[in-house]
Amino acid sequence: MALLFAGANSQYTFVASDRFLESMAGSRADPEQAKPMVIRCDDARAAVGFVSFAQPGQLAVRSWLREELANAARDESTFTATISRFAELAGARFERLPLSSAEKRLSVVFAAMVSYDEGYTAPWLVRVSNYEEVGVEEPRAEANAEFDVLPKVPDDPSNAGSLVVSCGVNQGVLSSGIADLATLVATLGPVSRVAAKVGELMRGAALAPESDGWVGTRCDAVGVSRDVRQAPEGHSISAGDSRTTFTPDVDDLRREIPIPRVGRNRPCPCGSNKKYKLCHGQKAS
Length: 285
Description:
Radius of gyration: 18 Å
């Protein structure tokens, strides 16, 4: 999990990361630990992915991420408050890890659709990192003790345009490829096409000497629609451009969730992708 792309436009946000299943030491990682996921806050939905350089087995980043985000939203579950608190918790946790500072590098990217009180919704890209900085091409080889919250938000939320960022080991990615991805996102190309383009960039980076063998050839992408009624979508791109879809995990961080009653076998309105009877219908009974 060493290379990640994220983007957003007026209709959706996405996060796409490589699936590096073997570490530099040859240890195998759980492929489910690499998949991006989705969170729901009081005022936002966000696709979430990460890049990490700890060896598999030292820290199950995805499981820890879900737990710490839930902790971060316990007192205040708006998007900005949750991310700010998460950065504090991440710093405290990583400071205690018995790893070298080179192995403690972590960036978590949130590609969110944020609802404003004025009645419109706009995309945000937020990176929480202890080794990468906005506008700096070369990430630090060693981690800081604290995590910084690095937002990339539209100048005019009512007319947001599009945003694209990459992080991690992106030295092997062609600048022309990133430009093509940005054009695809700006012209509202569907998430499936975005995932295919990112898969192409991932494979190119995996083969480039500059990536030093860190980047995997497989890619998982998760997209979140501006329309809250539309379920998030997941796409996996493997070597040879083989494509499959999956249902992303959705972690609901909202403190109070008004859920209308629906048929027992209908999808739960909370967006968990479970049947109502197995989700909030079960809680109601």
